[in-house]
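This section describes the prediction task in plain terms. A model, or a person checking by hand, is given the sequence of a single protein chain and must write out its three-dimensional structure as a string of tokens. No templates, partner chains or ligands are provided. The sample shown here is typical of the held-out split.
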Amino acid sequence: MKYTRLTKEQLEELHMEFSRFLAAQSITAQEWEAIKRDKPEVAEQELDVFSDLVWEGVLKAAKFLEHRSNGQLFLFELDTSEIHLIAIRVTNPSVDLTTSTGLDWLGQNLGKEEVQVYRSTKTYGEDPHADVFDLIQKGAVLTSGELYKQLKGIL
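The expected answer:
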């Protein structure tokens, strides 16, 4: 398995896609039930393969990621050969960048001493999808990139 297995909740959300995945392998619903009952290791392998396929699709489509914490904001743009980062650190302990109030404060105080802005670019390693997956595993979430684009325009 290249990535991680989807959670039970994620698999439930992707029930129809998983059914199509099994159908593409000519596995009927009755056969799937028998596999789960009689060959649990095969069922586990099928879930792993399906999970990797889903992750590959998600990672291939990803264009922007965000990772927020109370005093820090990491915004990533994922292009074909590099990851571009805008990192913001707020030294004011009363500001929480995980809230809309904190982001409003940031917008009003972007040029002030309490706000430190860093920019960086990193070339992908051998496997770009693995690099993006690593960021997600560390807490980054997929976004539309709206905040990244706004800050990039200002900076």
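For orientation: The two ends are 40 Å apart (CA to CA).
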